[in-house]
Hints:
Oligomer: single chain
Number of strands: 0
Number of helices: 3
Distance between the termini: 35 Å
Helix content: over 70%
Low-confidence stretches: none
Structural class: mainly alpha
Largest sheet: none
Radius of gyration: 16 Å
Amino acid sequence: YRLLPRISRGQVFVASNVRCLRIISWCCFGVALVFLVLAWFRSLGLLVAFAAAFFGLILRVLKNVFARAVALQDEADYTI
């Protein structure tokens, strides 16, 4: 609810977006852990756990790209 309105306003490469992506990725890893435990009872839980972990990994990579872009933008803002 906070990430998308900022992006639509044009505030793409800001530190708060990096923080939101980090939180979302940890939530995906948490869901993966819960479904990994639930896979003991249902085999579909293993598929969901893998998908959530993979999505969390993709979000971590995206978060690192955004963090680097924020650093580059901050550096560019201070140059003449």
